[in-house]
Amino acid sequence: VTGLTLRLDEHPFDDSNSTSNSSPFQFWPGQWVDFYVPSLDKIGGYSLTSIPRDLPTIDLAVKVSRHQVAQHVYETSCVGDRVRIRVGGNFVYHREEASTSEKQVKRILLIAGGVGINPLFGMMRQIHSDVLLSAKAENVSYRVALLYSASCEEELLFMPELRDLSNEFPHNFQNFFTITRPTRDDTSTCLGEGSNSKKRTVDMHRGRITPDLLQKSMEWLNRDNTALNSHHDVDVKQAIAQDDGDPVRDGKGADAVYICGPPGMAENYLSQLCSRDDCFKVDNADVHFEQWW
Description:
The chain is 22% helix and 24% strand.
């Protein structure tokens, strides 16, 4: 997978079906775009990994494949080429405004398989931008647990960015990585230095995402904040990320779950999450999923 950056053109292609008062390009984190190359008869579909604040540029994740459009991106395209895009998809993250003046904790569980991380990474970036770094976050704090499975460490995408998020805001982001077919090089338990130059061990596992690992992520989402270790260097960041007490115990393990991966993955975890008989049960309506293959 490689990243592709596009800049929106102020003067789009001439199109007899378009109108001068057409709406500007907008999108929500989690969506994808149809990708049209004028010289090709095939259409590509790629996840947006950037966030609306980045406009007029957008970032896409393109997987290496024999698909005509992907081959064009990797082998033929040049800086300055023009393409058409159209946004789509209902698998989206919307920021929730605080419903009361009292402190709230929103718990979000993300489950990714392989390149299913692409739309979820955009969601994590949005939460980081709009909630943790915003002055409007006074009455709401988010906790985001990511369960991410890939065949080997090399296939775990966005590792530096994901590591930095959990290092910089350990109260708000926690990653649980697992690899199903480790190679000889997959021996490390720590993937380097965080943005604050303090070494932090990555939670790396072997095998698929198991019920035990799912349980571990739910426990982290719902634990007392005083049990979490902090190493913030900037007071304002600590104030934004810090919770003043226990999360609201409302009988649910998470307020929202987003799952993206291969066929069968979403149904598997939907069943596990919604059939629980303990305090970590999740409502069916709170589970959102996308399947790409």
